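Model it.
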Amino acid sequence: MATSPKIIVDHLSVNYRDVQALRNVNLTVRPGKMVGIFGPNGAGKSTLIKAMLGLMPVVTGRVTYGDDTLAHQLDRVAYVPQRSQIDWTFPATVWDVVMMGRVKKTGWFNRFSASSRQLATAALERVGMLEFRDRPIGALSGGQQQRVFLARALAQEAEIFCFDEPFVGVDQKTETVLFNIFRELAQAGKIVMVINHDLGESITNFDQLILLNKELIAAGPRDWVLTRDNMTRAYGGHVGFFGHVA
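Modeled.
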């Protein structure tokens, strides 16, 4: 059986409005693990994901997935941005949003197949939102909206899943649903990357951590990343979080 591809970030540097947002980041992201991306506000977490996906220009470096750049393979990627970046007044139903996940595979001017509709239905069932399929997306709570966008990502049948702060403004039920599905995706051999700001107990859900503050502080298993020296370099001074600090 062929080995699943991995993402390799090679000497990635990014400027944002003439300010260096990321400096010389090198890391490897392998499938089969839940990867959490952490760091203080302004650390470059969202910038890292966007640069990896080719959604913003880079100064130096490249990001590959298998034998090609990741930006050339976005059909393999499901990306859910921060909720604050989404226009919730757009007149779309829950069903419309989830079916958007099938557009790349279907084509813009082709009708959706029966299998695409079945995938969308299954995705909504999986996140517990099928009964809301005809509801306007803007009429839902924050947690419900996040579950709908997770359903859209599932409907894409992607290999790589990127979520930017999916737990902001959601209820405990939704957080549990999200973590359970992230775990299932990782166990199925997918690449799962989640930007998170919470240093509480939820951090124990991640197998691997990427700790940033404009440069890569550390990447690897939780116990290896969450050391006092690394946390001081990332956050400065004292920072409280759940768990043991080595």
